[in-house]
Amino acid sequence: MEWLKEALFVREMARKNNEFFGECLPMIASENILSPLCQEMLITDFHGRYAEGTPGNRYYQGCKYFDEVESKAIELAKKLFDCKYADVRPTSGTVANMAIFKAFASPGDNVTVLDTADGAHISFGKWGAAGLRGLNLHIYPFDEEKMNIDVDGAIKLIRQVEPKLALFGQSVFLFPTPLKELAEVAHEVGAKVIYDAAHVLGLIAGGKFQQPLKEGADVMTGSTHKTLPGPQGGVILADKTKEEEKEMKYLDWAVFPGVTSSYHLHHVAAKAIAFAEHLQFGKEYAEQIVKNAKKLAETLYNLGFDVLGKDYGFTESHQVLFRVGKEKGKEAAELLEEGGIIANMNMVPGDEHPLRPSGIRLGVQELTRLGMKEEEMEEVAKFFKRILIDREEPSKVRKDVVEFKKNYRKIHYCFYEGRDPYEFIELIKI
Questions:
Q1: Which three-class secondary structure string do you get for 159-188?
Q2: In whole angstroms, what separates CA 193 from the centre of its chain?
Q3: Model confidence over 331-383: pLDDT tens digits?
Q4: Domains detected in the chain
Q5: What is the pTM of this model?
Q6: Concatenated DSSP letters of 85-137
């Protein structure tokens, strides 16, 4: 019975985690909650199976039903993003980026990219996938006031460097990238344009952000579990087929056998359902996300916070970013957690160390999926003020957060709305 006790300990921690997030305000910009149908896919027999290869061309037998699922996921992704090519096999956005680097670049190749301090994802940095591939990174200049790439400086850099890849997309992503003009210059020097849409994938699909594949991106990668509220995983999208451009075949090989073996079949099934749900609910969901982010940012600013992007409407995405004092981001995030608000410390322009940042990054996509709208964002902002400006005891604020959250425990924007996504389902009795 000793090992049963250990197993039940883990199960109890999972239950406590559900209770914890059910009582908190989850505002990590890279997270979301699953619909009931997506959750169901994660406990199917797909979980333990392998399907190396592509539908109809497998290395293992027993894939006849999964072939139908993967084909449907590809079909739905193409429809959702109005494109000709979709690969649903990457197990994360980072793995999707790794496949891009393997397919289209070689060690030592020049690549242009944002610095992580200015918002780029770590997979585009020297310590991430780009560094692992041995790419020679050249950093775009950044306009701190606009919280965006300096267009003139970036054009100059691209022409000077003549990169193999021009990388765009961010982890801190307040405003659309000035992609059209930068992609035009990148193509002039023979670069392939790659757009990492991990954070804003659901906004793009919902028509509330830019449309990278229509603005010059050759390939778009993304995560399927942020503003697109599916299972944890990745996707690669393009508007050219393998028949139209032979290099797309390299991308297929880069995914398998390059950076994946089995690719989490239960997640692929859940991706397909998430795509179908977003086709029906995505426009409404994305629109409310952006409204909520704007209202939250505006209210925080009016309450005294140093919210970035204030001269440009604060944000056009799900994210809000504010400074809390030099290297005070970690302290602020810990105080917020004590008060029942889950956010993350984040680098802002001028920071030099990711573990000593000066900012807090927020995302409203999960609160939005729980039914919150602009009025609720004003209430949420007041909790921030009580903790970080008024310096009220966080445990006291937490009691009010728990009471507030009781009214927002039902999931929206999906098939079978109304379920409590934090409910811990008792599957076994011992």
A1: HHHCCCEEEECCCCCCCCCCHHHHHHHHHH
A2: 19
A3: 999 999 999 999 999 988 888 888 899 999 999 999 999 999 999 999 999 99
A4: 39-275 (3.40.640.10)
A5: 0.95
A6: EEE---SSHHHHHHHHHHHH--TT-EEEE--GGGT--GGGSTTSHHHHTT-EE
